[in-house]
């Protein structure tokens, strides 16, 4: 049966490294570029106060959402995502982890056959979260309207909830984008990937892609005592789900 949902008036634009859609009061622009070159990486590392960069850093990628009537402009960028990674000594809840064989290796150096072998000379390095764990939620540009403020969502207010029923409905998609910000193989100890996804349906409102991978959803549904104490014990403060809302108004 054909969908009866009307298609809103919209305009799609595309260039070699960006795609955008203007629909209703919104303009969404997704920029995807090659991995940053050496000069760009050097500049980014200086901005991050010397923190080593992920193996694949897409410093020119971004997602930008603009609400025309209010002047509100919200973006997701690689630099700001990396600025949210802990750069310095890790404390409880920062998200850094130590690989499982680290303790076994240290034990073998102190009590095993290798205990008589001199430890190799090492140079001190600046500590940082080598897993690139970040709680970056995006940010409003400085040029955006200062009248916009975020507040914790009210679970009893239907307008503050994510429209999951609409997300699962088989409506045609007007616009979809997946923007990688950085990736790292963590020295063959796993992988760290940060990307942003967005999806727009046949409606005048902006609908984010909120269906996470099954493992991520399972982790956020677990109680804190299971994920932060009896589990890995990282006590990472980023576990769980947090929903904030903002009311956009037309500028006078």
Automatic annotation (TrEMBL):
InterPro entries xrefs: Phosphatase_reg/MetRdx (IPR051330), TIP41-like (IPR007303)
TM segment ranges: none
GO cellular component, as recorded: cytosol
GO BP terms, alphabetized: TOR signaling
Cited Pfam families: TIP41
Protein family per UniProt: Belongs to the TIP41 family.
The protein's name in its UniProt record: Uncharacterized protein
Naturally occurring in which organism (per UniProt): Hermanssonia centrifuga
């Amino acid at each position: 049966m054909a969908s009866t949902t009307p298609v809103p008036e919209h305009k799609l634009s595309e260039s070699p490294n960006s795609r955008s859609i203007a629909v209703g009061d919104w303009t969404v622009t997704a920029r995807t570029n090659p991995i940053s070159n050496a000069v760009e990486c050097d500049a980014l590392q200086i901005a991050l106060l010397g923190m080593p960069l992920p193996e694949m850093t897409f410093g020119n990628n971004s997602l930008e959402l603009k609400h025309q009537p209010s002047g509100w402009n919200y973006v997701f960028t690689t630099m700001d995502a990396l600025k949210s990674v802990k750069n310095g000594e890790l404390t409880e809840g920062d998200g850094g982890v130590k690989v499982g064989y680290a303790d076994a290796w240290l034990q073998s150096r102190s009590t095993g056959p290798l205990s008589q072998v001199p430890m190799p000379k090492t140079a001190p390095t600046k500590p940082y979260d080598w897993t690139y764990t970040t709680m970056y939620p995006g940010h409003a540009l400085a040029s955006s309207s200062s009248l916009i403020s975020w507040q914790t969502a009210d679970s009893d207010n239907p307008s503050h909830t994510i429209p999951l029923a609409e997300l699962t409905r088989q409506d045609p998609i007007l616009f979809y984008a997946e923007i990688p910000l950085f990736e790292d193989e963590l020295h063959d100890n796993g992988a760290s990937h940060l990307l942003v996804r967005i999806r727009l349906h046949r409606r005048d409102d902006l609908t984010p892609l909120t269906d996470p991978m099954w493992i991520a959803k399972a982790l956020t549904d677990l109680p804190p005592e299971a994920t932060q104490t009896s589990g890995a014990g990282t006590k990472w403060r980023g576990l769980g789900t947090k929903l904030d809302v903002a009311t956009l108004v037309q500028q006078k």
